[in-house]
Amino acid sequence: MATVYLDEIREELQKGPTEKDHPFRFFTLATVGLDQVARLRTVVLRDVTDNLKLTFYTDKRSKKITHIKENKRVSLLLYHPTRLLQLKIEGTATYKDDNATKEEYWNKLDIMAKKQYTTSRSPGSNLIDPHNLEYLDEENHFCLVEITPYKIEYLKLSQPHHIRVRFSKVGTQWESEYLVP
Ligand SMILES: Cc1cc2nc3c(=O)[nH]c(=O)nc-3n(C[C@H](O)[C@H](O)[C@H](O)COP(=O)(O)O)c2cc1C
User: Which atom, in ligand 1's list, is nearest to the CA of 58?
Assistant: First the structure.
């Protein structure tokens, strides 16, 4: 088992939300659109557990949540430019908007961050004037999305060989195989 690479994956991912300017603070999230076209966007990585569950926050009216309700399989892309490290992750996404979850995470957000989840109209709606956005006072549409990976592909560009490893979750264990880069 290529344990050393899995340890590196965990270590770098966990630096994303905690270390200033770490490139894994952001990742590209792909969902499958209702028309079966891949939909991509940048989100902020908020938490990574030791068993590699990844969390981000969003507005539950957003398109990505519509997609996840139809198909919970998502793909993630992360790139670390100085380490020349790319991670491709496939996993299942679940969203949480129960009161306990919301209270725990909502209260930790600053006012500006909270505002993002309180537009009176849904994200992606047409708008006549971008400077005239209306916000809700009492209500919010905050939710948390957790991604449980089942496949991770590690690619490190290095000399004399690039290293490419595919990790697949089998039961509770990760199995690995080296691939031609
Ligand atoms: C730097 C950056 C960080 C972002 N972080 C988030 C985020 O954490 N959550 C989120 O829902 N959208 C975030 N966005 C906006 C998304 O990229 C996207 O435009 C928005 O969520 C609408 O996506 P959707 O219509 O596909 O659901 C971020 C955008 C940028 C440029």
Answer: 11
